Amino acid sequence: MVVVKIVTQVKLMPDAEQAAALSATLRAVNALACWVSEVAFTHGMPREYELRKHTYSRLKAEGLGAQAAQHTIKKVRDAYTTLRANIRAGNLGTPKSKRRRKAESKPITFRPNAAQPYDDRCLSWQHDQQTVSIWTTDGRLKGVRFVCSAHALKVLQQYRKGESDLIERDGVFYLIATCEVPEAETYEPDGFIGVDLGIVNIATTSTGYQAAGRALNRYRKRQLALRAKLQKKRTKSARRRLKERSRRETRHVKNTNHSIAKTIVTEAERTSAGISLEELKGIRQRVRLRKPQRVALHSWAFAQLGEFIVYKAKRAGVPLVFVDPAYTSQTCAECGHVDKRNRVDQQLFICRGCGVVVHADRNASHNIATRGESVWNAGRESRVPATR
């Protein structure tokens, strides 16, 4: 059975004594994780088994349970694995860049309230009572209440599997649980809906839906100005406000992307169509923009929107393909004529071949839909066994 991995977040509602125990636990495990990180750095970032031989006894002696000690070691090892992957991918710059040299020159550190993973031996859920029993350095806490939406509770009951992360954010505790939701069986699509992603219009589909980005871009521009104003102050209060605004903006964008993705997938499911998306990997390296446009490109969560569409499509059984976006904005969807001059400006498309006049993003979405159907048919034909 193929599954889609999603995360479900619940808010813990501990009393004062329970909150103190949870806070002390996070600070204790993260302080020890920093020590494990120093050991790993000293020994050349060994494998998890080798790292365990150097650190497990000390972690047990410091009061961590067997599972908590194992998870702390694994958390450190995973952090170094991620660091190496980022270095290999060039995300930290060239070997001589200041950012990369700084990352490689010292051990990884963990914030006092950084997430700590829990498995089913350290954490148990009582869904009917909406409580959890959780391990802490002060002993096992039972009957810790949590709150979440009815839908989230249903997903937890049916599909929760694997680890859950305990985090503390501004004095509030959350559990983030991994859920493995089975994919719905994919149906045979009756055509494809092309989705053109952009900055001015976040998403434009070949069926007529358009998610205008004007309001979101105005919001981000306002946030950018406020950030610049606070950054000039350089005070502790300003840093706290910057962190709050960053989180608020992230939540706003995430909610917007969820709404857009849900609208697109629901429309495809209702009409028994598939979804054709642009392959946008590496867009930041490919696209050349004027300086005022760069902030919008690099701050827009188009990858997040694509991920939301993908996982929602899988859950609904909607067929989905990725296509090469090259020249979709310069190609006429009516006659196929390709000319750079066809794209008059951001909104207007006038074909030099047949003379058709259409909204540029709408034209691109039709091209993406056509390419999606071609990709799907090519894949279907390749699955047919050869006749002898």
List keywords for this structure.
Nucleotidyltransferase, domain 5; alpha+beta; about 50% helix; globular; 5-stranded mixed beta sheet
What does this structure look like?
With about 400 residues, the protein is α+β, with helices and mostly antiparallel strands. The protein folds into two domains: about 5-180, no CATH class; about 190-380, Nucleotidyltransferase, domain 5 (2-Layer Sandwich). The protein has helices at about 15-40, 50-60, 65-90, 100-105, 150-160, 215-235, 235-270, 285, 290-300, 300-315, 360-380; strands at about 5-15, 115-120, 125, 130-135, 140-145, 160-170, 170-180, 190-195, 200-205, 210, 275-280, 320-325, 350, 355-360. The strands form three sheets. Strands 2-6-7-1-5-4-3 form a seven-stranded antiparallel beta sheet. A five-stranded mixed beta sheet has the order 10-9-8-11-12. It is globular. It starts with a strand and ends in a 6-residue tail after the last helix.
Any idea how many domains? 2
What is the 3D shape?
Answer: globular
Stretches where pLDDT is under 50 for at least 5 consecutive residues are none
Q: Into which percent range does the helicity of residues fall?
A: 40-55%
End-to-end gap: 32 Å
Strand order of the largest sheet: 2-6-7-1-5-4-3
What's the number of extended β-strand segments?
Answer: 14
**Overall residue-averaged pLDDT value:** 87
Largest sheet: 7 strands, antiparallel
Order of helices and strands: EHHHHEEEEHEEEEEHHEHHHEEEH
Q: Which structural class do the helices and strands define?
A: alpha+beta
Number of helices: 11
